[in-house]
Automatic annotation (TrEMBL):
Organism encoding this protein: Sunxiuqinia dokdonensis
Location of this chain's protein in the cell: Cytoplasm
A Pfam family of this chain: FKBP_C
Name listed for the protein in its UniProt record: Peptidyl-prolyl cis-trans isomerase
Listed GO MF terms: peptidyl-prolyl cis-trans isomerase activity
GO CC annotations, alphabetized: cytoplasm
Keyword tags: Chaperone, Cytoplasm, Isomerase, Rotamase
Amino acid sequence: MAITKNKMVSLTYDLRIEGANGEMIEQATAEKPLNFVYGAGLMMPKFEALLEGLEQGNDFNINLSCDEAYGQIDENAIVDLPKHLFLVEGKFDDEIIKVGNTVPMMSASGQRMNGLVLEITDDIVKMDFNHPLAGEDLFFKGKVLEVRDATDEEIAATVQGGCGCGSGGSCNDGGCGCEDESCATEGANAGGCGCGC
């Protein structure tokens, strides 16, 4: 059975940056594969397009430029926020708000996003809201473990959103669309689910 729309796909992959022999930053294993409904819009479009037609047992190598993946780094997504926004009961929360931490935030319109704390001064917290893999070319090497018809329930669940290649979701915010809610276990995106989201 080939990968086409509304098929449930299970696959493994090693995700690397800086070339096919570069640093591995995420991995889906046979024990914790990436499971998704093909064509539901949960994956990066180019990643999904290059999987179409593959069958169970097929190996794949997918190279995505940063423009085909998470885009270029957007300098406008690096912002200075007033430090008082991070007060909890009148006190600055320096356990969570510290340089190098990724902090869940909400925009004025209610959109959830993660910000990386870059700098803290007396008055501001500088945060980067770019995707962690913005500006990076991505290299996937993997194998298709299974392709089957998705159930009506699996298809309905994708309508509610979820996460995978390109969704920006995270298992930590309950947004994982993976069938078993498995998270990436290796590298910079541990705690995320599926292809660097």
